[in-house]
Structure formats: C-alpha cells, structure tokens
Design a protein that fits this description.
Number of helices: 7
Helix content: 25-40%
Order of helices and strands: HEEEEHEHEEEHEHEHH
Largest sheet: 6 strands, mixed
Radius of gyration: 17 Å
Distance between the termini: 32 Å
Structural class: alpha/beta
C-alpha cells in the first residue's frame, strides 16, 4: 500500500483524525471545521508510530538527501524529529515557539552550525504560520533550510501561498484529500460528503458546505 494511503488509514484508525461534517468543530480562530486532527496520538500506538517514523525517514532520505540536521517544531514536531533522526543517523534539535526568558535565551535547542543543511520536521501544516516561524529562526542562525517534512497537510491555499512566498518546499506523508478519499472508501464517512469536505479545504471561511 502506498505510504499516503497507509498513513491516512492509520490516522483514521487511531482517531488522530476525526471527520464530522454534520457536527463541525470550532477552531480557535472561530472557523467551523469538519475535521479535527491530533497527530500526537500517533506516538501512543507503536505500530502507527513505526509507520510514521519510517515514513518520515524514507521521505527525508528521498527528498532531502543532503540533510545534515533535523529540527523539530515545538512541541508536536520534536518527537518525530528525534525518532526520524535516530533512524537516519543524523543530529537533531528543535525550535522553540519563542525564546527562553532566562539562561542563554535560546530559540534553537541543540547544536546548529551556520551553513548546515536542515530539514524542518512538523506534524501538521494548515496555514503554515508556526512552521515558517521555525524556518525563519533557523535561517537567522545562518543555517540552510532544505525544506519541510511533515506528517499531514491540509493543502489550504493560504498555507501553500505562504510557503511559496517564503521559498520553502514541504513534503507530507499524507494530506487532507487522501484522508477524505480513504475515509469514504472505508465507510468512515458517506461518499456524498466528500465534496463538502473538499469545499471546506478550498475555502475554510465559506461555511456553505455545512448545509450539505
């Protein structure tokens, strides 16, 4: 089975992804969403965790063969970066959401040298804000960001535009569309709801999908 579909099935199986088009969630931004994603649950299931970490290691090996360091995003990307780095025999560190207010006031934890080639490891990309903050911190430290390796991406246009504007490429193990297709094929959702879910992905601020 191809990796994207395998990971999609895994996320649905362990309920790391919930799809509720008839009972939408409300995000912190106030947006009504038919999907809720908590990829931290992948760490609690040994089989799924193995699929994810081997998948990330393979992705990085294929897409970023020049990688010298993996840097996880705080906090969800840290464990994935650590395990994938172990599998690849690479050093790792992580980028704090903000600098410490004590000690050396580090934003980057772990050894990172100017000029080193870095892959940023993230669990989830929606609008791209948090991962781009990490990219900016790494660049400010003088290192070269080869790109992002992520577990899941929504593929929202805002996120795609922001990554493009920052000159950053992202490769994900699976994405919103694959999860939705897999959910339909396995009977998790009604096939008629696929178009509603895709409409949300295309324009999250337009709530017309809610009415079916």
């Amino acid at each position: 089975m191809e990796t994207s579909r395998l990971i999609a099935r895994d996320l649905l199986k362990i309920q790391a992804v919930f799809l509720r088009p008839d009972q939408p969630f409300t995000w912190a931004s106030g947006i009504k969403s038919p999907i809720y994603c908590d990829n931290r649950l992948t760490l609690s299931d040994p089989e799924v965790r193995d699929h994810v970490e081997q998948g990330l290691a393979d992705l990085i090996r294929e897409r970023y063969p020049e990688a010298e360091v993996l840097m996880g995003t705080a906090t969800a990307g840290i464990a994935h970066a650590a395990i994938a780095a172990h599998l690849l025999g690479l050093p790792m560190g992580y980028v704090r959401g903000s600098a410490k207010d004590h000690g050396r006031q580090n934003r980057i934890e772990g050894k990172l040298l100017p000029g080193q080639k870095v892959v940023v490891v993230e669990d989830l990309i929606s609008t791209g804000g948090s991962v781009l903050d990490a990219v900016e911190a790494i660049r400010e430290a003088g290192a070269q960001v080869l790109g992002i390796a992520s577990l899941f991406t929504y593929g929202m246009q805002k996120g795609l535009d922001r990554l493009s504007a920052a000159g950053v490429v992202n490769h994900s193990l699976t994405d919103f569309d694959c999860v939705v297709r897999t959910a339909s094929e396995t009977g998790y959702i009604n096939p008629r709801d696929v178009s509603r879910l895709i409409a949300f992905r295309n324009n999250p601020s337009d709530e017309s999908w809610i009415g079916g």
